[in-house]
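Batch manifest, entry 17 of 40.
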Amino acid sequence: MTAIEATKEHLFIIQALSDKIWPHTFQDILTGEQIGYMMDMMYSTSSLEKQMDELNHHYILAEDSGEYIGYTSYELNYKGTTTTKIHKIYILPSLQGKGVGRFLVETVEKTARQNKNNGLSLNVNRFNKALDFYKRIGFEVVKSEDIDIGNGFLMEDFVLNKELI
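Output type: structure tokens
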């Protein structure tokens, strides 16, 4: 498995992966209307370009045997702290539970340490089965929050942190 730093030339790959992953991941948690709204909000070309250009989000693609199988995005020094924020981490449904998520988190951890960040943080939907995965790899729930994302929709999340020692 290889980690590839995504550039704008990879945006179509991120979008293709999200099209396969998002509806499957959230079909039992969110309405189809909210999934569509959030997909456009986060994965339109203009949104992805803004994340990369203005918001300092870095995307990593997981590749195995010539196939892209997942992605993560992160931001170093989140809000001026020594914490790295993982904004997204998604794996093809058929490969979940096979070490890809752990590989991506470890890739971000390594980069965080190299940049003198001493913690990771992420949000996860309170009903997402990935919550157990995050706990197994050392994340702890530190709070619950509801985020108004517009159009009458909320993200109902847990915030999880992991200390990097």
